[in-house]
């Protein structure tokens, strides 16, 4: 356990105090004494309200539990449910029509449409990869994935696969940057006969830069390159502007349970804001140092240079209102609300960017972009707005320079989305749907209404369609187009790019101007969808359409009249138990909060706490309603522990779920607790139990 130092009545863990005073404050012209005094005042002001908001969640949930349990059939009626939820203050009146007032927003958020990466804040290499994913090679993305049929032959460059890639890339150019009287495959050299000459915006050497739907495309011409040398036009690659934005995550994808973890994540954010983050690693026997990419400079004939950012615009995702952190103790001896600490420290670090103290700029508009997850309803959004006001005052920032992204992932938020947006209308830059967390909260909120349908059936239900559709329509009605992002959730299968290309085009077609992807390669391929769909034209098409009614959103996904067979029950138990164990064992034993975890069919899926929440709540719900017994669940966990152990056999850091001498390891105990204690967890969140077991694992070494 870290030693603490006293600062303005607060007890600050030594690593955190040293980090702030020795690495963050120097150069900012902010005295440590004044900073800690202001920090103490913020905690004194906002901690009681934070606690009251959590108590309000519990009180509402208790009322909902009682109402559902008294007459489950009544709970299945959306009209009766709406009346009840209004009577207890869970639902509030929709505000009169309004337009968000957010100003000083970078164009990557307000005026462009493209992919968005989410990356764990504790992994420097992944952070640098994500920040540099602003530009991606289409040739590489097509060559090395299943985006095209077949696969390259091993043993060096496969020219047949290469020809397949080049043909697909040039077909893309025919669609996005068409030539007047020929196909790109026919072009050799000389003047380029563009159908629309205004698409040409500059060049680097012989390489040509074009713009389509606001996104840049560089056709790399290099006749000395092995590929360019055999191409009739000397084209060596097609490079796409891809991940316009990226979210540095301090929440669902990290395992940060103490001061050392928090400081490690904060230090990576500081490195990004100062531009000096580096990571050295060995790849194929070669030592590599990864740094942030430089800006890209092009020459515009007759108009000088055009400089484009070489990096994604970065958000930082703070934690929600629920968790506390041992990194800072309050005067009453209690742990500080972690979300308040995040707001203060991540904004303080961002001053290095706003004041131009680093080697690269993140926000050229002069804003700090914070994604705030897991807020329940407009009163919690209003709390965040006031908290950010106080942080701005502490740091000497103009009002509303700290922007907020609101994750629409809790039932009370999506049911009151317009009111939530209204509560932060001067600083909101982002709303985003998250199917997994939203489904986890759906199941927990209505735990007493009945057994839920299997996990795989959730996406086909009316409430999900209403949720996704209302999010876009409400965002547009509140004036998001041209001012802020409307986002959609993650593609979870990083090895299945053909499926992603076939399915994820639905996101820009829905009117969303960003969507999450799991890797830089996926960002490059998903960028193709934003060339296929002019998102802002699509937003204009649907802007006048009515917002879907609330009733479908309130349709609880209970399995009415279902009589599952034993095989169906066992299959669902195994599927969820395997997913829980495969994720939790890495979280508890290795501190990995996000990774590609093999599912029950050995397909690698990107898993984080959101996926864990839905699986643990589904099993908790089935236990609660007797669909499965405790014995059934125990048997599934034991069966799937053997499978997960086998799937991780090649990992030298892996610890068997069975533990030593037949005693269940901490990870197995944690997974079991998530299910058997799931119905009692606050809003079904997994963090309290995960943190408890991870701290114990760290204490054991």
Describe this structure in words.
By secondary structure, this protein is of the alpha/beta class. The protein has a domain at 566-700: Malate synthase, domain III (Malate Synthase G, Chain: A, Domain 4). The chain is 44% helix and 16% strand. It has an eight-stranded parallel β-barrel with strand order 3-9-14-17-18-19-20-21, surrounded by six helices. A five-stranded antiparallel sheet has the order 4-8-7-6-5. It has a four-stranded antiparallel sheet with strand order 1-2-15-16. The chain is globular. It starts with a strand and ends with a helix. The mean pLDDT is 96. It catalyses: glyoxylate + acetyl-CoA + H2O = (S)-malate + CoA + H(+). The active site is at residues 317, 608.
Task: Describe the secondary structure blueprint for this structure.
Blueprint: E1 4-7, E2 10-13, H1 14-24, H2 32-70, H3 72-75, H4 78-87, H5 107-110, E3 116-120, H6 124-131, E4 135-137, H7 138-143, H8 159-176, E5 200-204, E6 207-212, E7 215-221, E8 235-241, E9 245-249, H9 259-274, E10 279-283, E11 286-290, E12 296-300, E13 304-308, E14 313-317, E15 324-329, E16 335-337, H10 338-354, E17 368-372, H11 377-395, E18 402-408, H12 411-414, H13 417-423, E19 428-433, H14 435-445, H15 462-477, E20 485-488, H16 497-503, H17 506-509, E21 514-517, H18 520-532, H19 535-542, H20 566-590, E22 595-598, E23 604-607, H21 609-624, H22 630-647, H23 666-676, H24 687-700
Parallel strand pairs: 3-9, 3-21, 9-14, 14-17, 17-18, 18-19, 19-20, 20-21
Antiparallel strand pairs: 1-2, 2-15, 4-8, 5-6, 6-7, 7-8, 10-11, 12-13, 15-16, 22-23
């Amino acid at each position: 356990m870290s030693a603490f130092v006293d600062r303005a009545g607060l007890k600050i863990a030594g690593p955190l105090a040293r980090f702030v005073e020795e690495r963050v404050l120097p150069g900012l012209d902010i005295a440590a004494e004044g900073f800690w005094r202001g920090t103490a005042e913020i905690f004194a002001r906002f901690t009681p309200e934070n606690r009251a908001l959590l108590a309000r969640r519990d009180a509402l949930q208790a009322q909902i539990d009682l109402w559902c349990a008294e007459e489950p059939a009544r709970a299945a009626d959306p009209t009766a449910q709406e009346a009840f939820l209004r009577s207890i203050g869970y639902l509030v009146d929709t505000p009169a029509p309004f337009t968000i007032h957010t100003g000083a927003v970078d164009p990557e958020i307000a005026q462009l449409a493209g992919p968005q990466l989410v990356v764990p804040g504790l992994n420097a290499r992944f952070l640098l990869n994500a920040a540099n994913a602003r530009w991606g090679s289409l040739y590489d993305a097509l060559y090395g994935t299943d985006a095209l049929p077949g696969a390259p032959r091993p043993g060096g460059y496969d020219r047949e696969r290469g020809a397949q890639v080049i043909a697909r890339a040039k077909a893309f150019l025919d669609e996005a940057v068409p030539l007047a009287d020929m196909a790109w495959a026919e072009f050799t050299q000389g003047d380029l006969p563009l159908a629309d000459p205004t698409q040409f915006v500059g060049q680097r050497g012989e390489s040509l830069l074009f713009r389509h739907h606001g996104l840049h495309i560089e056709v790399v011409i290099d006749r000395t390159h092995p590929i360019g040398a055999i191409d009739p036009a000397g084209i060596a690659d097609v490079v796409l502007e891809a991940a316009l934005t990226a979210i540095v995550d301090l929440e669902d994808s990290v395992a940060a349970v103490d001061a050392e973890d928090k400081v490690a994540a904060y230090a990576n954010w500081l490195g990004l804001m100062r531009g000096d983050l580096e990571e050295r690693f060995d790849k194929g026997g070669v030592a590599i140092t990864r740094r942030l990419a430089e800006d890209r400079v092009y020459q515009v004939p007759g108009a000088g240079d055009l400089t484009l950012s070489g990096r994604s615009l970065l958000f930082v995702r703070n934690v929600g209102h629920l968790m506390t952190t041992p990194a800072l103790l309050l005067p009453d001896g209690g742990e500080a609300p972690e979300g308040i600490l995040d707001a203060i420290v991540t904004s303080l670090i961002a001053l290095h960017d706003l004041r131009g103290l680093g080697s690269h700029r993140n926000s050229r508009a002069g804003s700090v972009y914070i994604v705030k997850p897991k807020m329940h309803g407009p009163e919690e959004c209003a709390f965040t707005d006031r908290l950010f006001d106080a942080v701005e005052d502490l740091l000497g920032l103009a009002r509303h320079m700290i922007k907020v992204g609101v994750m629409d992932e809790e039932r009370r938020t999506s049911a009151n989305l317009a009111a939530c947006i209204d509560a932060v209308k001067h600083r909101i830059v982002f709303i985003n749907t998250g199917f997994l967390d939203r489904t986890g909260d759906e199941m927990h909120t209505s735990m007493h209404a009945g057994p839920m349908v299997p996990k795989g059936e959730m996406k086909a239900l009316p409430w999900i369609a209403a949720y996704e559709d209302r999010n876009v329509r409400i965002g547009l009605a509140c004036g998001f187009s041209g001012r802020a992002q409307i986002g959609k959730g993650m593609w979870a299968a990083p090895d299945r790019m053909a499926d992603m290309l076939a399915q994820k085009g639905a996101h820009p077609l829905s009117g969303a101007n960003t969507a999450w992807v799991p890797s830089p390669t996926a960002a490059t391929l998903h960028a193709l969808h934003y060339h296929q769909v002019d998102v802002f034209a699509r937003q204009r098409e649907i802007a006048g359409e009515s917002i879907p009614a609330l009733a479908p959103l309130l349709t609880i996904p209970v399995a009415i009249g279902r009589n599952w067979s034993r095989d169906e029950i066992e299959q669902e138990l195994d599927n969820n138990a395997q997913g829980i164990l495969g994720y939790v064992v890495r979280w508890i034993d290795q501190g990995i909060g996000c990774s590609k975890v093999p599912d029950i069919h050995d397909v690698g899926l990107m898993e984080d706490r959101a996926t864990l929440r839905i699986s643990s709540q589904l099993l908790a719900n089935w236990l609660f309603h007797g669909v499965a017994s405790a014995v059934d669940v125990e048997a599934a966990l034991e069966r799937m522990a053997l499978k997960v152990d086998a799937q991780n056999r090649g990992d030298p850091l892996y610890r068997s779920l069975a533990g030593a001498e037949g005693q269940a390891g901490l990870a197995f105990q944690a997974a079991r607790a998530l299910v058997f204690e799931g119905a009692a967890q606050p809003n079904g969140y997994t963090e309290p139990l995960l943190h408890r077991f991870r701290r114990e694992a760290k204490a054991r070494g």
